[in-house]
Design brief:
binds uric acid, alpha+beta
């Protein structure tokens, strides 16, 4: 005897670029939208009856139509709009999850119509709606940062396989992947997602620069704590920090010293430090992360 377990389906990675034209001053939003729905999907799996299915092609079309009809402001608002639409318009759909990545563009010179893709991190969000409640997670990926000092690593376990020398001064570098859960998940029109994003990003950067680090784990905790301190609406922060090792190159064969000047930036393997920092009284996460 087998039964159908949890399932969901949707259109992954719908790429949409929305241009808004104010005379000669144009604006662009460049998104990657993934929708994922669940609900009364027993029959489609068990017998192939598609009557309950909102086709993934329709989900993709909805993304494009909503971009035209409603425009695109903060990605959290667009994700919530889509998630609510799928559940509220279709009796067979009970949960909608919309994940969005936003690629940043900057103006190219003075021209109102010319843009250059920014080297900045990618902003992300996931909105989940169940017909009554909504959960929103915001975040970023690929925020690359580096400190040239104020980082040590020593005092760790030494066993028969340990070769790593202790260091009192090293480069600390990482590409921050961070996601943060909003405690008030469904603040509607009132939410200023852009302001909250800027505050969280600034908190991550300030904590990275300002922490005298004895380990990347300690820096992770400082970064998460700082987001919680600076963003009252956020109740939980998840961080994934690859340790981008920089090793001092031995230049002695060439008769040269190397007092923290020339490094080999290693690609892989890399340490991967991950953790969650949350308020003790954080409300239940529900399906926010799942
Ligand atoms: O900050 C660090 N944490 C570790 O757990 C670790 N392990 C390692 O080899 N280097 C480092 N650095």
């Amino acid at each position: 005897m087998v039964i159908l377990g949890p399932n969901r389906y949707g259109k992954a990675e719908t790429r949409v670029v929305r241009v808004t034209r104010h005379g000669d001053a144009h604006h662009i939003k460049d998104l990657n939208v993934s929708t994922s729905l669940s609900g009364d999907m027993e029959e489609v799996h068990l017998s192939g009856d598609n009557a309950a299915v909102l086709a993934t092609d329709t989900q993709k079309n909805t993304v494009y139509a909503f971009a035209r009809k409603h425009g695109i402001g903060a990605i959290e608002d667009f994700a919530l709009l889509l998630a609510r639409h799928f559940v509220d318009s279709q009796p067979t759909i009970h949960h909608a999850r919309v994940a969005i990545e936003e690629y940043a563009w900057e103006r190219n010179a003075e021209a109102g119509h010319s843009f250059v893709r920014s080297g900045r991190e990618t902003r992300i969000c996931v909105a989940h709606y169940d017909g009554t409640r909504a959960w929103v997670v915001s975040g970023l990926t690929g925020l690359v940062v580096l400190n040239t000092t104020n980082s040590e690593f020593w005092g760790y376990i030494k066993d028969e396989y340990t070769t790593l020398p202790e260091t009192r001064d090293r480069i600390l570098a990482t590409a921050v992947d961070a996601t943060w859960r909003h405690a008030v998940p469904d603040p509607g029109e009132a939410a200023d997602w852009d302001k909250s994003y800027d505050a969280a990003r600034q908190a991550l950067l300030a904590a990275f620069a300002g922490t005298y680090s004895l380990s990347l784990q300690q820096t992770l905790y400082a970064m998460g704590s700082r987001v919680l301190a600076d963003c009252p609406g956020v109740c939980e922060v998840r961080l994934s920090l690859p340790n981008r090792h920089h090793f001092l190159v031995d230049l002695s064969p060439f008769g040269l010293d190397n007092d923290g000047e020339v490094y080999f930036a290693a690609d892989r393997p890399y340490g991967l430090i991950e953790g969650t920092v949350l308020r003790e009284d954080a409300p239940d996460a529900g399906p926010a992360w799942s």
